[in-house]
Structure formats: C-alpha cells, structure tokens
Amino acid sequence: MTKWTRNVGLAATVVLVLAACSSNDTTETTTEPAPAPMESIAPEDPGTIADVASANPDFSTLVAAVDAAGLTSTLAGEGQYTVFAPTNEAFDALPAGTVDSLLEPKNKEQLASILTYHVLPSGVMAADVTSGEIETVNGATLDIQVGSDGTVTLTDGQGNTANVVATDIVASNGVIHVIDAVLLPPEK
Q1: What is the spatial distance between Cα 90 and Cα 154, in angstroms, rounded to a whole number?
Q2: In angstroms, how far is CA 96 from the centroid of its own chain?
Q3: Which pTM value belongs to this model?
Q4: Gap between the Cα atoms of 183 and 177, Å rounded
Q5: DSSP secondary structure letter of residue 21
Q6: Which single residue of 69, 108, 162, 169 could bond 179 by disulfide (Cβ 3.0 to 4.6 Å)?
C-alpha cells in the first residue's frame, strides 16, 4: 500500500469517470498502489487515455472492455475527459461470469453504457474535486463525497460505492483517477 497525501476540494464536472482529491492541506490516507503512467512515453507526451491505460497491466480488463464496447477511438481521440478507471481487481470483484458476459458482442450496448458511466466530458484534476453530483458521458449522475480526511468516494446509480485510490494520471486528452470498484448506472 502507498500513502496518498492530498485532501480534496471536489468540483463537479461531466463524462466517463472522475474522482480525485487535493487541497492545500495534506493528510495521509492509505490507498492502493497507483498504476504507473506509461514509461515508454516521455512526460511531455504521455499519450492518450487509451495509450496510458493500455500501457498499464493493472488496466488490462478495462482495456479489453473498452475495445469490446468500441470506445477505444473515443479515448484515443481529441477532447478532454476524466476517466474513473477500475483496476483488474475491481472487475474481479464482480459476480462470477459478469465480465465474460459483458464482453460478448450481444452485450456491447450494455457494456458501453457501463463504461461511459465512468467518464466525464472534461478533464478534472484532483485539486478541483468537490462533493456533489456530476453528470457522466452516459447521461446519468454519480455522487461524489470528499471526506474530511481527503478520501473521495463515488456512489453509483445503484447505491454501490467506489473509492478513489490514485489520482491525476495525466494523458494528452484528459486524466485518469483510479477506483477500486466498477460503477453501475441506474437501472432503466
């Protein structure tokens, strides 16, 4: 486990997954190890969100899901996005068979809906995060709560929670914040 020394102010924004924390105060919070940014790309050119995620083995399930949903070109394209990226462990925590089922071509629309629920339509750094509701690229909202200790918790449309465990993994078209659970949009 690593130490995360940032408090969060939480500022609401929109699209495929955001949550982070930071303020001028520093408080130590225990978190999961942060996935490392891509080492083969120079810091001045980190690559796109798709590049950064593909280069990190902790995101291999997420990358496979993004490919299966046909969203790779979006996350490799222009624009600024915030992605709340579940780790492989987060996907492994889903009920047995869920990931395999979602990766089937017949479930592409459902998978795309879940993945776009993890994305905000603008880049939001941890220092700009505040408590409140944010609209995702999916169109549904997430609730973000910043704790007094600087921890950030997301509550999805089904009442499940995910914790932000690493923040501000910068890409040329946005930022990734790592979460410890898969978020699910509200049932229709």
Answers
A1: 14
A2: 22
A3: 0.76
A4: 13
A5: -
A6: 162
Q: Which two tokens stand for residue 140?
A: 């549904």
* Domain annotation for the chain: domains and CATH numbers: 2-179 (2.30.180.10)
User: Residue 169 class from Cβ within 10 Å (0-12 exposed, 13-18 middle, 19+ buried)?
Assistant: buried
Task: Give kind and range of the element (H or E) at residue 178.
Answer: strand 174-179
Structure tokens at 158: 């089904």
Separation between Cα atoms, residue 17 and residue 179, nearest integer Å: 9
- Residues near 182 by beta carbon (within 8 Å), at least 6 away in sequence: 86, 90, 91, 93, 94, 114, 162
CA pair distance 37, 16, nearest whole angstrom: 19
What does the pLDDT look like over 138-184, one tens digit per residue?
A: 999 999 999 988 899 999 999 999 999 999 999 999 999 999 999 99
Longest dimension (CA), the chain: 48
